[in-house]
Amino acid sequence: xxxxxxxxxxxxxxxxxxxxxxxxxxxxxxxxxxxxxxxxxxxxxxxxxxxxxxxxxxxxxxxxxxxxxxxxxxxxxxxxxxxxxxxxxxxxxxxxxxxxxxxxxxxxxxxxxxxxxxxxxxxxxxxxxxxxxxxxxxxxxxxxxxxxxxxxxxxxxxxxxxxxxxxxxxxxxxxxxxxxxxxxxxxxxxxxxxxxxxxxxxxxxxxxxxxxxxxxxxxxxxxxxxxxxxxxxxxxxxxxxxxxxxxxxxxxx
Amino acid sequence: xxxxxxxxxxxxxxxxxxxxxxxxxxxxxxxxxxxxxxxxxxxxxxxxxxxxxxxxxxxxxxxxxxxxxxxxxxxxxxxxxxxxxxxxxxxxxxxxxxxxxxxxxxxxxxxxxxxxxxxxxxxxxxxxxxxxxxxxxxxxxxxxxxxxxxxxxxxxxxxxxxxxxxxxxxxxxxxxxxxxxxxxxxxxxxxxxxxxxxx
Lengths: 253, 199
Ligand SMILES: [Zn+2]
Fold this sequence. Notes:
With 253 residues, chain A is mainly alpha-helical. Helix content of chain A is 55%, strand content 2%. Chain A has helices at residues 11-22, 29-41, 45-60, 71-78, 97-117, 119-138, 153-191, 196-201, 233-237, and strands at 5-6, 9-10. The longest helix of chain A is centred in the C-terminal third of the chain and has 39 residues, at 153-191. Chain A starts with a strand and ends in a 16-residue tail after the last helix. Chain B starts with a helix and ends with a helix. The chains are: A mainly alpha (253), B mainly alpha (199). Chains A and B meet through α1, α3, α4 and α8 of A and α2, α3, α4, α5 and α6 of B.
């Protein structure tokens, strides 16, 4: 069928001209005639034309959406770190008071709060607190014991040394666990697609000088496509936590 | 000065550390990038995160932009597109489970071609200009394969020409045209099926 000519035009040629015909690029009158004739008689290309045309018209109903007013602020905070000098948004409207108040609030606290509010850091702080209390209880410190503490210097020194040994042992164990964890993470990272992890986790500003990509292209990978994942279904799951940029705290507000 | 010269100057000022120039670039392009991300990813939250990532990437690689090799917008679109690919791969596992959406995916398609032709999509005239239609079109767009989706977004929503799209996607122009055709047609088919369920 592909080679079949209908009114002087093969289906492949019709297909190649279809987008030009719909986009108003204009076909030469001779071609236009053959194109129309082929469209009328071909049972494949005719419906294809109608569907493509309908799809194009559907797409044209979609209007431009308005980005949130704080987006520019967030972008600047995540890149140059320089506050926007404009209080009026691009289309001339001033940002709503609530939004401006939130921006002001964010600008005060975002370096700290957005960091603390990220789930994995909340977990880390929890872990630090937990391991401290654990260390203290291993070291034998209990609130009830405080009253009974022997305050003679020799006894103190003895208790201190004793506690220190326990704490050091405990932290050696913890360190061992962390070392294993980080090795596992390294292995995962080595297996995961190379580009994902470092691109998001580095601190962004002031890194321009380190970039030695001078090709004028934003990315060197020529073969970036959506279907690559089908070859590596397992690795996709090993990409680590989803990228959380610094100003995504609005999710938690 | 034409637009390309203005942008070229902004980029140079920005590389030399001019924060105001960077803000100007952000002001100029954020709306466009946000719209591409919104139509591709489907929701405002992902669109915001992705737009932000695009600018972070731009900020870090601005010194690699070579105005001799193409328009700034094409360069920006390439960055956006690469991040959309990453986003798509990353969220793939989440999407496998959400098969309860209103619009059936193309894989459930068991309808013969003859039947599809028989009841063509309702004509997109004044009656379909409603908000509901736009929402359905937006939802249907999410059901397209990412290759077809990005092609129709860049062509029909961003009004880029074939050559610019081919450069941004790094595929031949013929491939771009074919994807635009298939993307539009597939979208119409998805919507016509949805309309049939609704009516
Ligand atoms: Zn044909």
